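for the recovery benchmark. C-alpha cells below, seq after
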C-alpha cells in the first residue's frame, strides 16, 4: 500500500511538473484554523520557503521553517508537501478560492487527516 501511494504521488508530480509548478504560489500571512481547535500561523514570503507556528491547540508553540514542494493544481488551488526536521510528513491542498485547507500528517505509523478554514492576515 505504501508503495502504491508513493507511485500515485510520483505520477501526480511528474504529470503536473513544468508548467504546473507553482511559480505564482500564494504569498502572505494566513491562519489555518483546523477542526478541533488547533490554529497555525503560516507565513509565505516567496515560493521557496514558508514558516509556521502553532498559536492555539495541543502543539501551541511548535514552529518551523520549511522548504516545501508546491504545485499549482488550478486557479488559487495548491498542493503543498514537505518533511519537517522531526520527520513528520505534511501534505496539504490549499484552496484560496474557498479559503479551505485539507492536510494529511504522517508521524511514524500514525496518519491524521484534518481540514480547516483559512483566514488571510496579510
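predicted aa per position
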Amino acid at each position: 500500500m505504501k508503495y502504491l501511494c508513493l507511485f500515485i504521488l510520483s505520477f501526480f508530480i511528474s504529470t503536473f511538473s513544468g508548467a504546473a509548478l507553482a511559480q505564482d504560489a500564494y504569498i502572505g500571512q494566513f491562519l489555518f484554523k483546523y477542526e478541533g481547535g488547533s490554529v497555525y500561523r503560516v507565513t509565505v514570503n516567496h515560493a521557496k520557503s514558508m514558516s509556521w507556528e502553532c498559536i492555539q491547540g495541543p502543539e501551541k508553540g511548535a514552529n518551523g521553517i520549511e522548504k516545501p514542494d508546491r504545485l499549482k493544481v488550478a486557479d488559487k488551488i495548491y498542493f503543498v508537501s514537505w518533511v519537517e526536521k522531526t520527520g513528520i510528513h505534511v501534505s496539504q491542498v490549499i484552496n484560496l478560492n474557498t479559503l479551505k485547507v485539507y492536510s494529511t500528517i504522517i508521524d511514524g505509523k500514525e496518519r491524521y487527516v484534518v481540514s480547516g478554514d483559512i483566514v488571510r492576515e496579510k
